[in-house]
Specification:
Layout: E1 99-101, E2 106-109, E3 112-115, E4 121-122, H1 125-129, E5 135-137, E6 152-153, E7 158-163, E8 167-173, E9 183-187, E10 190-196, E11 201-208, E12 219-222, E13 226-232
Parallel strand pairs: 6-11
Antiparallel strand pairs: 1-5, 2-3, 3-4, 7-8, 8-13, 9-10, 10-11, 12-13
Length: 261
């Protein structure tokens, strides 16, 4: 309002300010042309831009597991569901524990923080930690479902051996053998094995031997990566193979023959 005028002239009591011409109405979008079959080749033009595919909607978060009904919950165990944080104090379990949690995954995008299972977003991380759960279950998840306790059965294990005139030293390679629950028993012409590992593998087999052994004098040792057998020969004969069911290679590894020269 304080900008001074830029034109000089006579005073007038008539408003002769030019009126702005009306703007033309926007042209309507042309109707799509009907499809006409023509023998003439179409003029070359730019191919239409394909519409960008819409990102698929996020699937609903999967339902999490529940505690095994017969599982014993240790005292001071914390609920495993996100944002719940309730600690078990040893009280009897019930169906009204009111486990309020987030079944989705945390989302951090351009400074905002939240959960994929609900719409609330905050800026500060401390506020993110205080976002209350958007779903409620009747019981907390302290220990989880009962896991499959099956063992992996091994049909065979790698082995090698060498021999002296009176002994056969054999190694059966199997890692993490548990000494407390494994079994090794010597027979006259076999070794009864039941080897169990700490990672739930089991090799159970009666291994036939090529020759006869003195089962009272034979020994074994369980190590970190293998079972070592020290088999005392009963007759001092040379063994071309360790197992009685192996094919003979024709090679005899022998440092001499037991007995009086």
């Amino acid at each position: 309002m304080t900008i001074p005028p830029c034109t000089t002239g006579k005073h007038s009591t008539v408003d002769d300010t030019p009126v702005e011409e009306p703007k033309a109405a926007p042209a309507e979008a042309p109707a799509p042309a009907s499809t006409v079959t023509s023998s003439e080749p179409a003029a070359p033009g730019r191919a239409p831009t394909a519409q960008a595919p819409q990102p698929p909607s996020s699937p609903a978060p999967p339902e999490d597991e529940d505690d095994d009904p017969d599982a014993t919950v240790p005292e001071n165990a914390t609920c495993k569901r996100k944002a719940c944080g309730v600690t078990h104090k040893g009280a009897p379990r019930s169906d009204d524990e009111n486990c309020q949690h987030h079944p989705g995954a945390p989302i951090f995008h351009e400074g905002s923080k939240g959960w994929s299972c609900c719409k609330r977003r905050v800026l500060e991380f401390d506020e993110f930690l205080r976002i209350p759960g958007c779903k409620t279950k009747s019981r907390h998840l302290f220990v989880g479902a009962k896991k499959d306790e099956g063992e992996e059965k091994l049909e065979s294990v790698r082995h090698d051996f060498y021999q002296t005139p009176d002994k056969v030293m054999a190694s059966l390679y199997l890692k993490k053998i548990d000494k407390t629950i494994s079994k090794v028993e010597f027979q006259d012409k076999a070794v009864d094995l039941d080897l169990r590992t700490s990672d739930r593998k089991r090799f159970q087999q009666v291994v036939p031997l090529f020759g006869t052994i003195d089962k009272e004098k034979s020994e074994f040792s369980i190590m970190g990566t293998k079972l070592e057998l020290r088999l005392v020969k009963a007759d001092g004969a040379s063994w071309p193979v360790l197992r009685g069911d192996e094919k003979h290679t024709g090679e005899i590894i022998q440092m001499g023959r037991a007995g009086r020269a």
